[in-house]
Predict the structure.
Amino acid sequence: MTYLDTNIFIRAFLDLTEKGDKARDLISSILNNKRFSTSVLTYDELVWVIRKSVGVRESIQAGKNLLAITNFRFISIDKLVLSKTQQLIESTSLKPRDAVHAAAALLNGEIEIISDDADFDKIKELKRISLEKFKI
């Protein structure tokens, strides 16, 4: 499986450029049986950003859309993930939310993350693939 960072979902919802189209195509591929994962933190981040950007109703719909995706694994955040998060923050100076995503991915055997956030490049065990370079 491949881990999806929240920025892919945000781009799919808000970005009307080609990158937004690519994010929407990627999410469509999830619906067509490709296997991807993300952490439960993605729900919070997505709904919050959409709420701030375009409004409450739209954020509610974005949350519903995310939860409706089948063939998609949501990774729980527990003390083990938080301990790994702490280690990553200390060793790489990642921001806490990025470190949570990285820890969740790594502890669940993910070696790739699709993200436009170059901060993930600090983690040697995790290969970041930009949305632009990802092949569907």
Q: What stands out?
A: The CA atoms of residues 47 and 59 lie 5 Å apart. The first strand starts at residue 2 and ends at 4. DSSP finds six helices and five strands in the chain.
